[in-house]
Design brief:
alpha+beta, two-stranded antiparallel sheet, disordered N terminus
């Protein structure tokens, strides 16, 4: 399945299927890589129980150690409404797991000296000159008003990669002025979360540049539209549409044949769907329409993939930037991305781990949450482990100390998604016996 688009122009032309060879990680008996087959069976038992009780539609889980797949199973339904069974090759909306793909694209350009992390974004997108910051003020009666002050320094590429640009998500921010500006521009839709793909790239850049920032750049970690904007920087620096750049420089070399920004009609029968009503909230589960080509390739939330496809990407990261002879990045660049980039100079009122897993213990690198130590976090893992997840329930992690990767794919966008991320981590780590 291939689905990407023409060069950086307003007219969208959908390419046909790619002729890149599909690739899968080799499979192995769990015991050969220090995992217990018996203990791994608990994954299926636990997830099937959740499915049987109507809390989850279905899931695909892939676990690899030392570069070999020890567990790859699917459970439940690809589409509960039609009772279509889940399959290992099901396609999922990965939402924010698009961000690591685009972060790697930016680092490819860094390695080629087409950008620097310290470069101001205005170098690539002139609209970001003279940014302003929205500052809330509370009077004696508790009423909040907003004023504007000049940004004290430009937004950099590094800020976009680590979510310190002062940008926000309309779905998350408490700043009413910024939320309204994003809504007016179509970058925030109260009835459909994280859908900004229908705004043309140039319009998206203009809207983000006109809206005030929520923080001074490089002062606060706030999860945001930063990687959507990073996608526009990648386009400006490369001269290519984001989907085309990813296709040529990442997907084709790795053999990721089912990853892109739309699903061709011939593959829609493989698309996983959420439960119609979220069991935790009682509200409808509404996800983005990936059957039609988007106006922009959303670097923050727009891609689709399969468990096996995404595992190729994750294993490349675990291998220090290469897979089966395809060198994507240098090991030094991977180490840079998986290092702490917040330090003690950047505030994090809600830390990356609390946002992702509901637990502290993680800082943020360049595209990933990074575990700071073996302890603190309320889930198993190792210092230096890095990860991210998606709004609709997808999740992955890399544990270099254990030579371990994990990928969870499901379409469950409700508030229980952090619970399932913690679940899968516990179930995988308890299966390590060597």
């Amino acid at each position: 399945m291939k689905r990407n688009f023409s060069a950086l122009v307003c007219v969208v032309v959908l390419f046909g299927p790619s002729f890149a060879a599909a690739r899968e990680l080799p499979a192995v008996e769990p015991e050969k890589v220090g995992l217990s087959s018996e203990r791994l069976q608990r994954i299926g038992e636990v997830f099937q129980q959740e499915i049987d009780q109507g809390r989850l539609p279905g899931a695909v889980v892939l676990v690899a150690r030392k570069g070999e797949v020890a567990y790859f199973e699917s459970f439940g339904f690809r589409d509960a409404a039609s009772q279509a069974p889940m399959a290992n090759d099901a396609i999922f909306r990965i939402y924010s797991m698009t961000k690591p793909l685009v972060s790697v694209a930016a680092m490819i350009l860094m390695e080629e000296a087409r950008l620097q992390l310290a470069d101001p974004v205005v170098k690539f997108l002139p609209e970001f000159k003279d940014m302003q910051v929205s500052v809330p003020k509370t009077d004696a009666f508790g009423k909040v008003s907003y004023g504007l002050v000049a940004a004290e320094r430009p937004i950099t590429v590094q800020d976009l990669l680590r979510h310190t640009a002062g940008l926000a998500y309309g779905e998350i921010t408490g700043n009413a002025v910024v939320k309204e500006a994003y809504a007016e521009a179509g970058l925030f839709k109260p009835d459909l979360s994280y859908e900004a793909r229908d705004v043309a790239p140039a319009e998206e850049v203009t809207a983000l540049a006109k809206a005030p920032l929520v923080h001074q750049p490089a002062t606060v970690w706030e999860y945001s539209l930063a990687v959507d904007l990073l996608g526009r920087v990648v386009e400006a620096a490369s001269g290519m549409r984001l989907g085309d750049f990813l296709e040529q420089r990442l997907f084709e070399p790795l053999g990721m044949v089912d990853t892109g920004f739309t699903v061709p009609e011939a593959d829609l029968a493989r698309l996983a769907e959420p439960l119609a009503i979220d069991p935790a909230t009682g509200g409808p589960n509404l996800l983005i329409d990936v059957a039609a080509p988007p106006a922009n390739d959303s670097g923050g939330a727009g891609a689709v993939s399969t468990a096996s496809d995404y595992a190729l990407f994750v294993q490349m990261l675990a291998n220090g930037g290469q897979l089966d002879g395809a060198r994507i990045l240098s090991p030094t660049t991977i180490r840079l991305m998986a290092s702490d980039h917040l330090g003690d100079r950047i505030a994090a009122p809600v830390t990356p781990g609390e946002l992702l897993l509901g637990t502290p213990g993680y800082t943020f690198g360049l595209g990933f949450a990074v575990r700071e130590g073996n302890g603190i976090a309320a889930v198993p893992g190792s210092a230096g482990e890095f990860m991210w997840a998606g709004y609709a329930g997808t999740y992955f992690w890399v544990d270099p100390q254990e030579s371990l990767i994990g990928v969870l794919m499901t379409q469950a966008p409700g508030p229980s998604r952090a619970y399932y991320r913690r679940h899968i981590k516990q179930l995988v780590y308890q299966a390590i016996v060597e």
